[in-house]
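Colleagues,

For the teaching module next term, I've prepared a clean inverse folding example: a structure given as tokens, and then the sequence designed for it. I'd like students to try predicting residues themselves before seeing the answer, so please don't circulate the second half yet.
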């Protein structure tokens, strides 16, 4: 390892060399190169292969989960959502699964609370923007979820917006969304030498419903109910998780029509059944 001196300071990689800072010094080292064949076959890299298998499976499961959000992901998801999901699956969900390292089951039902509260955009968590308590109730077959929006209250004057709704500047209306989706557990298959969904036929299904636009400065006098129902089967299999995601959008009536306000919407995983 060599130390870089002089007026030029930079970090990064050039060809076979990497430059980085440690203990206030800029150092240069040659990149380590491990042959791919050694990683794949050497007994000394067995643990690395096992870790790589679960990391790859976590990325695959995260992708399947994001695909089940296809109706809303472009509007609601933030940057790095794939890496954030993969990291949680690898560090929290995999260890809860049965089996040996590198072959452990990946199932959200093993630890459903781990992803509850996960925001699609890390800087816009739904529960911070809409603080009213919501009730989510699945039906007996886990093919539908009912969301109950309680009565909302406001300030002392009609012009005062609700303190429980953190609306962006210019917003005059909002609406609540309920997205339900399914995700099968994933298990390691020796013949395939990788992970496969246990129930691909019921995985990746989704349904989306939403309220009408609600004026921000008008209290909701009666509870509002939304029901999102999956189609195609009468009973959800026990190895398939049912996710309920709640979201909010804002709009302005500055013109003749309501205009949605971009960069203000939020959605998060609210429950896993």
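(Answer key — instructors only)
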């Amino acid at each position: 390892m060599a130390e870089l001196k002089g007026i030029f300071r930079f970090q990064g990689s050039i060809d076979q060399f990497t430059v980085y800072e440690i203990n206030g010094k800029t150092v240069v080292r040659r990149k380590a190169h491990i042959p791919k064949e050694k990683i794949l076959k050497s007994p000394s890299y067995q643990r690395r292969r096992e870790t790589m298998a679960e990391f790859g499976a976590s990325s695959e499961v995260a992708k399947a989960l994001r695909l089940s959000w296809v109706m809303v992901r472009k509007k609601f998801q933030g940057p790095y959502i794939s890496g954030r999901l993969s990291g949680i699956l690898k560090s929290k969900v995999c260890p809860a699964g049965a089996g040996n390292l590198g072959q452990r089951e990946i199932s959200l039902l093993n630890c459903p609370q781990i992803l509850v509260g996960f925001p699609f955009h890390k800087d816009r968590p739904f529960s911070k923007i809409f603080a009213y308590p919501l009730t989510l109730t699945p039906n007996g077959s886990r093919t539908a979820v009912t969301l109950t929006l309680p009565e909302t209250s406001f300030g002392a004057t009609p012009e005062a917006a609700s303190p429980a709704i953190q609306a962006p500047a210019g917003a005059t209306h909002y609406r609540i969304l309920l997205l339900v989706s399914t995700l099968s557990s994933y298990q390691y298959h020796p013949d395939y030498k990788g992970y496969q969904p246990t129930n691909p036929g019921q995985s990746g299904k989704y349904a989306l419903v939403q309220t009408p636009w609600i004026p921000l400065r008008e209290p909701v006098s009666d509870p509002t109910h939304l029901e999102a129902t999956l189609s195609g089967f009468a009973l959800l299999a026990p190895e398939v998780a049912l996710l309920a995601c709640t979201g909010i959008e804002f709009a302005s009536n500055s013109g003749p029509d309501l205009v949605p306000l971009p960069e203000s919407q939020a959605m998060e995983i609210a429950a896993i059944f």
